[in-house]
Design brief:
Blueprint lengths: L2 E2 L13 H13 L17 E6 L4 H20 L11 H5 L5 E14 L18 E13 L1 H10 L12 E9 L2 E4 L6 H14 L3 E2 L5 H6 L2 H6 L2 H8 L6 E11 L2 E10 L2 E9 L2 H20 L8 E9 L4 H12 L4 E10 L2 E9 L1 H10 L4 E3 L25 E6 L2
Parallel strand pairs: 1-12, 5-7, 5-8, 11-15
Antiparallel strand pairs: 2-4, 3-4, 5-6, 8-9, 9-10, 11-13, 12-13, 14-15
Helix pairs in contact: 5-9
Amino acid sequence: MNTLSIKVSAMYQKYTFVWQRILLDALFLLMLTVALPAFAAQVSGLYDAEVLTEGQEIVQRNSAIAEAFRQVLVKVTGNQGIIHHPRLAGEISSASRYVQQYRYRMVTLEEPVAPVVEPSVESEGAAVVPAYFKQARMLRVTFDEQAVNRMLRQYGIAVWGGMRPATLVWLAIEQDGRRSLATLDADEQSYSGIFNVMETRGIPILLPLMDLEDQTNLQVSDIWGGFADAIWRASERYGADAVMTARLVQFNSELWRAGWTLLLEGKEFLWDSEGDSLAMAVEVGVHAGMDLLASIYAPTAVDNNIGVLYLRIAGVHDLYSYAKLQRYLAGQDVVEQLSLTFVEPEAVTYALHVRGGQRALEQGISLSSILFPDRSEVIQSQASAAVSSEVMVDSEASVLRYRLQP
């Protein structure tokens, strides 16, 4: 849990901005009630999981809790192989001690039934597989975030925070010699694979609306030809950090294959997937894409070193923008403590106690549209004194400069 601490510098007395201090401190008491826009790539539910359970007996419940804990470990670390970590076997078997709350619910599942064919009867064509519906019990478990994080760091395993790259997924399908862009209404199978990954990986996935604007901006030939410029232009409206595309081809009734492309920061990454159904080929491919994103953004080893960084944010014009900024910085997973050190007419400077250093902070900031680097050549003269004498830094370069998005 991030700690929020506001300290008032004695340096305020030397300037004429005392009124701002009074307003900002007063606003801090009210800021939790201010309605702020959500962050596009802020993920919730990382410490929740829902699994099937056979019953409510203690043994059955503990088995389901262990499975839910495996899912949470994958989401929290970004690593599918984490459940095989030798040091976590005991923690998984005793996962119930990390449970904060759990609840059951009943759902209706559809399952296929193998057709019964008389040996003496010759069937024409493929048999139609019927289905039946059954009631099943689900167990939803919420684990204690602080306890889980503490345990992982104890074993030197890094925790991936909630700010994650939002990824837009375009699907193109070739079936019976015809190619088309997938839509949620017409291609439910293909999207079911994406929904499964969204639940288990904890990375925000965006789906195109496939409205008239999308159909005008992007053609199936753009996906099939891998025309990155056209794909990016069509994707701009969604504000995604990364764009993933798939070319899905049906070879026979039991084999689908897909060629995937991930567009990220001007680079292209390619891989393939296959499955015995359209949904499985999509699910396997999207999992591979999430593994790739995790290898880039998720920390690979815990860094318990906490250092102080100074952050000057311009564009703080009013109480609303201050509350928005305060909420955002306090919500950064790498920020252990937040101290306001200096106030200017349209800027504020913080001392941040950061876990993992400057790179961890900059990476988290880059995944949101809240702050962007302040490249202004002209900075007010007070900026050079943006950190009070109580927390002097060695050079001007020691202060990271950003601007709040209007």
